[in-house]
TrEMBL record:
InterPro entries: OapB-like. Pfam families: OapB. This is DUF2073 domain-containing protein. It comes from the Archaea.
């Protein structure tokens, strides 16, 4: 049977990791060909670190990199956010997978449509 593995990763599991551990976890899983759906997306700094590290690991006949899509962030409108007048963005769900298997077809504010190929 040919297919792919998709792991749904809870916000709680990622919260227990440092930013470096998150990046390493994601890269290790994607290098194994898994598609990850993160309940809570990464911070902009974590996304930048993930992209930077991924670029150093790309090989012509090996690891092709990652495809990553997130819902656009939403401004923190909690009482604390308003009292502190912080315009921090709340991160939302993120889909990450091998670049040679996951292709984003369409993305808008509330939906990510992707094609997952089982052939490399």
């Amino acid at each position: 049977m040919q297919g792919f593995q998709m792991d749904l990763v809870s916000e709680h599991r990622l919260a227990e990791m440092t930013p470096v551990e998150k990046v390493r976890f994601i890269i290790d899983e994607v290098k194994e060909g898994k598609i990850l759906v993160l309940e809570k997306g990464l911070s902009p700094e974590e996304e930048a670190s993930l992209i930077e590290m991924t670029m150093t690991l790309i090989e012509p006949d090996g690891f092709s990199g990652i495809e990553m899509e997130s819902y656009p962030g939403e401004v923190d409108t909690s009482i604390f956010g308003r009292l502190l007048k912080k315009n921090t963005l709340k991160t939302r769900m993120t889909v990450i997978g091998p670049a040679d298997q996951l292709k984003t077809l369409r993305k808008d504010r509330n939906m990510i449509s992707a094609l997952i190929s089982t052939q490399k």
